[in-house]
Amino acid sequence: MLPWEPRPAACLEGVRKPGALPMRLSVSQFRRVMILIGVAVGLLAGACFPADSRPALPAIVAADEPGPRLTVTGRVFDAVEGNPIAGAQVQVYQADQSGTYQPEDPADESTARIRGDLTTGTDGSFGFVTVLPGEYPDQPPGNRHVHFHSVVADGYEPRGFVMLFDDNVRAEVRDWAESTGFGVVVELDGTPGSGFEAAIDIALDPVP
């Protein structure tokens, strides 16, 4: 019998009536009730929040771009009040899997082949899909990063930095990041097969 089918009268025996003592359930009966509650909650959640209801994040690479996928999410907020900043413009660029930029303008690295312009939502959030940047071919490993070329919003000081990954920062790069404040180290989760994820918080100082 399915959970939503009418129950015969016999199944109603022992149902608590007003003023009656509560029923006592056996362990097995209690487990069945909890399973049915879980199913009902799952059905309601599926109906109200379908898996594909969230909009897909923009990709700054073509579908055939070589390299494991990297999903970056973040939020921009007021460094003093902590409030989210809507409408902030976030410009990013990076090297490809081979560690090269291939800029349109050889004199301007920010015109790299892989780049994107993003805008934060009402909650200050943004996100994009790219590939995990490669190491520079002429340097030791440990300097994989994404450039946040500029983060700007009305009434705030602009900011720029590079996002480094905690599992791939050699000692001198980490020292440079900490001493200059121009490098922000974040955690990298995932695998090459399933893709990677990274999240970052960006605080902007109000203009005096």
Q: Summarize this, please?
A:
The protein has 208 residues and is α+β, with helices and mostly antiparallel strands. It is built from two helices and nine strands. Strand 5 and strand 6 form a beta hairpin.
What's the layout of helices and strands?
Blueprint: H1 27-48, E1 69-78, E2 89-94, E3 114-119, E4 125-131, E5 143-152, E6 159-169, H2 171-180, E7 183-186, E8 189-191, E9 195-204
Parallel strand pairs: 1-9, 6-7
Antiparallel strand pairs: 1-4, 2-3, 2-5, 5-6, 8-9
Task: Describe the model.
The chain contains two helices and nine strands, in the order H-E-E-E-E-E-E-H-E-E-E. It is α+β, with helices and mostly antiparallel strands. The protein has a five-stranded mixed beta sheet, with helices on one face. The chain is globular and about 40 Å long. The chain starts with 26 loop residues before the first helix and ends with a strand.
Strand line-up of the largest beta sheet: 3-2-5-6-7
Could you tell me the number of beta strands?
Answer: 9
Give the integer mean of the pLDDT values: 83
- Which structural class should the secondary elements be placed in? alpha+beta
The number of helices is 2
Distance between the termini: 69 Å
CATH architecture of the largest domain: Sandwich
Shape assignment = globular
How would you name the CATH homologous superfamily of the largest domain? Aromatic compound dioxygenase
Low-confidence stretches: 1-23, 27-53
